[in-house]
Amino acid sequence: MTRRIPPGLIWVAPALLVLVTLSIYPLLYLVKVSLTDAHGLTLTHYARLFQDHLFSVAAMQTFLYAAVALAFEFFLGLALALLVDSLAHGRALVRVGLLAPMLLPPVVAAVIWRLIYNPEFGVLNGTLRQLGINTANLTWTSGRTTAMLSVILVDVWEWTPFLFLLLTAGLQAIPAEPLEAARVDGAGYWQTLRDVILPLLKPVILLALLLRSMDLLRIFDQIFLLTQGGPGSATETVSLYIYRTAFRFSNFGYAAAMSFVGLVITMLAARGLMRLMKVTA
Amino acid sequence: MRLLALSLVLLVGCSRPGSDKVLTIAVNAGVEGTALKTAAHEWGERHNTRIEVVELPYANLFEKESLDLQSRTGAYDVIMLDDPWFPKLVADLTALPRAPDPDFLASTLAVCRQSGTFSALPYVGNSQLFFYRKDLFDKYNLGAPDRWEKVLSSAKTIGGGEKMFGYVMRAAPGNPAVTDFMPLLWAFGGDIFDAQGKPNLTSPEAIEALRFMVELGKVSPPGYAGFNAAEVSAQLLQGTAAMSINWPAWIAAMDDPSKSKVVGKIEFAPMPAARQPGIAELGAWLLAVPAGSPHRDDAFDFIYWATDAAQMTQAALRGNPPTRRSVFQSGELIKKFRAFPAQLAALQAARPRPRTTQWNEIENAFGVSLSQANSGAATPDAAMQQANREIAAILARSK
Asked: What are the pLDDT digits (tens) for A129-154?
């Protein structure tokens, strides 16, 4: 008796081939490299991870960066979406203006902000001095306490439009009837927002948080161009540390181990959010 | 149709030179690379060879070259490399077919050789110089900054009397901080390694050197803990800082009216002394031929030509410090470049960074600790303890 190949398999075979070639095989190779050193198979790279103080610092700072940036981007994006949605005229024009930072390549955005942040010659401190503010201690990306906030600000400036876009689409998909019913029942704006709009927007909110948090955990461009992880290791992140370990120190095994652990953590976080989305649906 | 075919043939013919010979050169994005690019195109025209130039910033240049050499892809025929990279890359370079001639300065040849075999030629004779505002030193009757203590006191005097900072330095983590710290470390009698090759940054001399660097930071612009070469040079060019360690590549800019507000006011001196005479860090750029290059004969022909006296004179006129004594002593060039005598003296006495295959990782760990001390995140003692531990761990892992 011959087995029939499921007809659907033939149709998905090209996509499967691409997936295996570009995702599965590189992942398996990554794991292999992470378990290998000059002497053969080993777990020393993973053992080193748990003793590596700089990796711990980088991981904590990556989570801090992601959490703070995500919070700012979400609340600002939501506020802008609600505001623009309430406009009677000019919505399209305002949307285009708000999306402009997101259209810039991340490298260009980082270079622009590097110039803005220059303590002596940058426009930020220059403007503050014009307003009579003493900028002697405002060193932004060079300051131990201000460096992390400075790079977060660049990310918020650039990627809030992304959340704004997603949440705007979500708001426009909300049917008019529940809002009308709430108005008829005498609910005010904040009550409607809390009890009608936000619950209906929840799936889109979770999707936006999921997409953005995965990007934030991988952050590299801004840090590389603005601070190189400094001053000291104040803005060191996992991606930057992996890059440096692989390409400056040529330690591919340890970089692969860090990459794999980072992948597992990101997948766990994404799975948690996706479960929340399913529960909500 | 025939006309179209003929046009296509002509177009294809015009877009390619009359030869299939090609030479690919990896250069640093900067003055040094610019001079080499110009020389390479000139050589290409003479030898009917197409030159492909890959120009990359410092960090990316190392990564690309390192990957190409390790995997022997043969992507590059000639590479520019900074001298500290030499120990790591030498195993994948081709030995020179003939030894360099004695006109090259000994300090620059020393970093092109391992186990007696030369595998590179020195192209850019970079060693640090001490840049200072001579006009302000004369105004306040300060003697030349020949000692670090005098540098600090002069910085305080000038900073107090003028609307500017007395000193500026590179202290961003990694290469920038280490580069500016090494002359201080050596002047105070310290070094990264002891005579047995063990990390020695917790010595009293080394800690004192870092404490002094932090003191210099107090008369430097805010945010110096994140400064690299561009920020330091901008401060000097704009006249907002009075002194700095810097590289000869910036000399031309200091006297260029289109870039500088301090034309003719900056003087170039040897490194200040402390317990020991001042020593500049060597930063020579070398030319080498990867073992995987498919055009080795042409590549060697090019690098010997590019480093001969005539070509090196041309490169010097384009802003590259030479590595040949005869070029430094050329009357024509001394008239044009007032800093040449100081550069020659500094280069002859310059010291290279420690010759180890782990230098990149060591420099990174050391640079992070230096940056932490300068940003106030760690005391000098704690920073040096941390650096010492991490360097010891790096060396242990490499065995």
From this structure: 999 999 888 889 988 889 999 999 99
Burial label, B133 (beta-carbon count in 10 A; 0-12, 13-18, 19+): buried
> What was the pLDDT predicted at B213?
98
Strand partners, B93: B290
ipTM: 0.80
Domains belonging to chain B, first-starting first, are 8-126+283-349 (3.40.190.10), 129-281+356-397 (3.40.190.10)
Using the beta-carbon criterion (under 8 Å), do A139 and B374 form an inter-chain contact?
no
Low-confidence residues in chain B, pLDDT < 50: 11-17
Chain A, chain B: beta-carbon pairs less than 8 Å apart: 96
Q: What is the pLDDT of residues B279-297, one digit of tens each?
A: 999 999 999 999 999 999 9
Among B284, B301, B308, which residue's Cα sits nearest to residue B94? B301
Confidence (pLDDT) at B17: 46
Residue-wise DSSP of B58-92:
HHHHHHHHHHHHHHT----SEEEEEGGGHHHHGGG
Are the beta carbons of B59 and A248 separated by less than 8 Å? yes
pTM for the predicted model, two decimal places: 0.85
**Residue type, position B188, single letter:** F
Chain A positions contacting chain B at CB under 8 Å are 54, 118-121, 136-144, 147, 227-234, 244, 247-251
